[in-house]
Amino acid sequence: MKDYIAAGDAALLERNGLAGFDALWSLQLQAVDEPNVERGGWSSVFRLELEGTGFYLKRQSNHLTRTLSHPLGEPTFAREFRNILRYQRRGIPALQASFYGARRVGAERRAVLLTRALDGWNDLDSWLARWQTLAEAERLAITEAVGGLARQLHEAGQMHGCFYPKHIFLRPAADRWQACLIDLEKTRPLLFGRRDRIKDLEPLFRRANPWHEAEVRQVLSAYLGSESLVASWLEQLIERRRDKERR
Questions:
Q1: Is the N or the C terminus of the chain less surrounded, counting Cβ atoms within 10 Å?
Q2: Each residue's pLDDT tens digit, 9-35
Q3: What does R_g of the chain's alpha carbons equal in angstroms?
Q4: Tell me, what CATH number does 39's domain have?
Q5: Do 108 and 128 sit in the same domain of this protein?
Q6: Which of 66, 57, 83 is nearest to 167 (CA)?
Q7: Shared domain check, 178 and 96
Q8: pTM for this predicted structure
Q9: CATH code, domain with 188
Q10: Which residue range forms the structural domain that includes residue 94?
Q11: Distance, CA of 108 to CA of 99 (rounded, Å)
């Protein structure tokens, strides 16, 4: 795969001497958290500021995932990058890739993924932490935005696989709240219809502890586009949660 550079970011990266794999790989930055050392390699995330624009630079070495199509493994960023482009093609709001590249250096498999920072957005976990301080209109707008995002995702034939509050980002806009997704590595096609939809949605409601049933119903109403279907979907979500708790 050739290196990818987003058209909208190419000039900015060029001006700063960062329009290539080697420049981004060797750039000295402070990691934002501890490296992920699973899968026999490592993966780290760094914050990068360029002319007032924020990015997250992700670098990894021998951090591989193995699938039927890649039995010898490929960088986990490769799958995430493909999913970012798939979301973009299908009109699913999500983080945006600015650069992707991979290299073999001897026995080492390196990969770099640069994405635009979601500055001005906050994850749903952050909004839930102050849920009781929000105005009723804000709470309703958030539940509608989350339900609408889930609808866009599933109508586009995709299952996120980690549809958790920490992966859903929101911000207020002029007439409605906007929502988008991050962490697309586990995305896959919706293969089993309603069963996959319930499977994708259940972790959201299990982790959104401040939501009462009325707010869960608001999310489902926005997701389904029909109040009449909410009860049956809520029943299935509750049953799936019970099944998981019994395991």
A1: C
A2: 999 999 999 999 999 999 999 999 999
A3: 20
A4: 3.30.200
A5: no
A6: 83
A7: no
A8: 0.93
A9: 1.10.510
A10: 4-116
A11: 20
